[in-house]
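User: quick one, fold this
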Amino acid sequence: QVQVVESGGGLVQAGGSLRLSCTGPGSIFSHNTMGWYRQAPGKQRELVASVTTGGDTNYADSAKGRFTISRDKDKNTVYLQMNSLKPEDTAVYYCNAVPPIFITNVLWGQGTQVTVSS
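Assistant:
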């Protein structure tokens, strides 16, 4: 069974950039609005950005002007380009449909850690 796999995280200095990628089942990615979520230590998971099947995007206020979400339907992949990163962006980043659903019996994948140093 195809799982959701997030990648691209890492350690970066404030002001730097990262590009996250997420791949998964085409049956899910092709027919749903997809989103990037994040969860910082001690905080609730939050939706950072979303992209519809038609390509319309929406961002949390904290991400506007700095993050760009996109999708490649042929590759069943969703991307999150993150620029001008801040220490408060430090979190584990996950992707899922919006609203989130179980994908191959898993609600959340392993995610990818983003750490921004000051």
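User: anything notable?
Assistant: The chain has a mean pLDDT of 95.
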